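Quick question: what would this complex look like in 3D?
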Amino acid sequence: MTNPIAPDLLATGRMPIKPRTGVWRRLVKRPLALLGLVIIAIVVAGAILAPWLTGYDPNEQMFDGLTLEGAPLPPNASFWLGTDLLGRDLLTRILFGARTSLIIGIVANGVALLIGTLVGVTAGYFRGWIGGTLMRFTDLMMAFPALLLAICLAAVLQPSLWIVAMVIALVNWVQTARVIYTETSSLAEREFIDAERTIGASAPRILSRHILPHLLPTIIVWGTLGISTTVLLEATLSYLGIGVQPPTASWGNIIFENQTYFQAAPWLVFFPGAAILALALAFNLIGDALRDILDPTQRGRA
Amino acid sequence: MSKGVTSKRTGVFAPAVSTTAGPVLEISGLTVSVRGEDGERPVVSDLSFSLARGETLCIAGESGSGKSMTALAIMQLLPQPAARIDSGTIRLRARDRGDMDRSDIDLALLDERRMRHIRGDRIAMIFQEPMTSLNPVLSIGRQLIESIEAHTGLSRAEARRRAIEALKAVRIPEAESRLKQYPHELSGGMRQRVMIAMALALKPDVLIADEPTTALDVTVQGEVLELLRDLQREHGTSVILITHDMGVVAEMADRVIIMRHGRMIEEGTAADIFARPQADYTRELLAAVPRIGTGVGRRKSVESEMRGSVAVVNDLHVRFDLHGGFFGRVNRRVHAVEGVSFSIAPHETLALVGESGCGKSTTAKALAGLVPYHGDIVIGGRNLAGLGRDERKAVRRDVQMIFQDPYASLDPRMRVGDLVAEPLLIHGIASKEERGQLVAALFERVGLSADQMELYPHEFSGGQRQRICIARALALRPKLIIADESVSALDVSVQARVLDLLKELQREFGVAYLFISHDMAVVENISDRVAVMYLGQIVEMGTRDQVFSNPRHPYTRRLIEAVPVPDPARRRPRFARLDQEIPSPTRKIGEDPPKLALKDLGNGHLVAVS
């Protein structure tokens, strides 16, 4: 194939551009990111291997799981994390709950981020009537009480884990859209975007290659922050009877079931709470590291 | 060649200020270092100088020379915690008159609380960007009065009186009513005057001005510099003027310090530095300064190239609607470009000059397809207005643009090699391997090495980045390159080299340039033809010689005269002041600006007649 532009320039043969060095390799090199990865690996492993890890059934109300007065047991040799009000093993419930919470945290949150980013980027880049319509709709969603909306949606659709995840996503994308919109509209004003347009870049190309990479830090931060919010929103929904139905365990509903007994049996709130915290922290650590790794200006001179 | 211009400049030397008293500020062995990723790095090393009473000392140098750091060190305003003074003394001499400041003070040892009394009162500073150094939510009156109150203990009424005096001193008309205005209601020049008023209201011993006119238009720059000179003469203030512009140095300085990489390269009186520079670097610096009247005549005659035009712009209008009122209807319009027409021949450089807000950049943007317009833009014989999207994309390939700020116009998250390859990718030119080779060749052509393709934009200096932008613009082999203030953000020595590169590339590839600039000296250096814009319309257009040797429109003359000459022996005696500000291009609906008619004075020299 001959080149119509500059055949004379082809004379000096040079190597083409090298591929990027692995993000994964640089991620594992950071101790904090590695810690985050380890925590997530433990949670995922725990969720998958839950039936074989403890030897208890998560929903079985055990006779020896309660004191003679009927109070839950604190952590001890046979029930490592203690038992709950109905005499069920807390560790087993947390392990099984990890399944629900991971799915909600990742799926619901992921879908919310996806919708939010799409709406925000489109509205922020195109402005005009498209942007106006999208953002007014977003404002409307924001003004509408999220919980009420979730209740309506959950009532119409038959509650199941996936439906709950979708409901949470449909409620949670709004804030992301707002933030992404603001950032996109300021990015769209930057000179390098004008420069892209002068070389003939199409809108999809500008959006995917030049706007999205700059939004990554924001998306990552919102993504990690959203994990804990969604897990707790799921708990709220279960509490209202429209979330994951008992006796199925989720971290959120373990906390909700037991929060009134916080003073008498603190472990019942402490352990699932610690699990949510650890998961959110792990995603946060990875998010932080990813943000730095993906931003070339954060790296020293090559 | 431009006799008409230079004869106006042979003024007398500014009368020497009495510098009988001893130095007011003495700096010795000053070393400032900044902590970065790769450890501590000195930004000012072992700098010593003294400033006499009533003297103007210019510290000149290119970016990274440590001149601003020196100023910040004197003010004890170094960015914390990264930068600190390692060693050296900054001795401020006692006032003769004051009773409390009898002894000398070493500013480097002063704590923050005592330093606050020195700042503003004894040493004041004005910065480059007057918009960011004024608080946008407070009226200028409040800012002025509060700073006076804080330092003097005058009553509010007295402080107010003093504020009005200060505004009058910097020749702000209707000073009293201006007190109620907010920074955004003032033009850049007015804002800088307010900053000067604020700095001088407390009658400091030393005024440090860090690039005070760099952000201003040339005609405004002339006024502000003259104002500084007059005020200094009246108050006997010592001034440290920090600038990169050797023209400003020649205009203002009694003594000059040339700095580079944090060290003093040369020190001397302004006359000596310009007439007999000792250091090689000073000579290079002076040689790189573009001067009006030195543009080499270009051998190519324009008429031989008139056979076909690369681009023809006819009756171009760009207006921006402003919404207002209760229903958000359009009630005013910014008439950014009003009926501009010109054509550019192959191999030709047409310069579009004017001051900020004159519509030159908007014209460029319309041509590059970035703003909607009315009128005709014909590129390579095809009128853009009648084309579909794909055709327009194909035609646009022939027009590329280089922006002003090389830091802002490259996506910081892409490798520069990918950035240069991108236009080829978008237009589907060449296979992947060929693209790599093409880009490598382009890199070498603009004076970079092909190994640098893997790096990111932030890893390059400003001049190198502008070379990357040039390579990118060149990748599609366009017929026309629009250079929008493309060298104004660069240091003079870098600027000279980039201009040379642009000229070389023009010879080699035969590309035409639309060169947009506010800098008349640069324009004279590079252009074949010049069009002067004022308030959205062209007021004068002709060949370079026609416009520079025989400027006919008063605005053109004013622009040329306003450029500071880098020669202290040719200081301008007096700069004609404009009594009113440049009118706003914003107009109510239905109030269209009067259209200027251009008259041909012969050989295509067009001048607006009113």
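Answer marked as accepted. The interface with chain B takes residues 1, 3-6, 9-18, 190-192, 194-202, 205, 209-210, 213-214, 294-297, 300-302 of chain A (CB under 8 Å).
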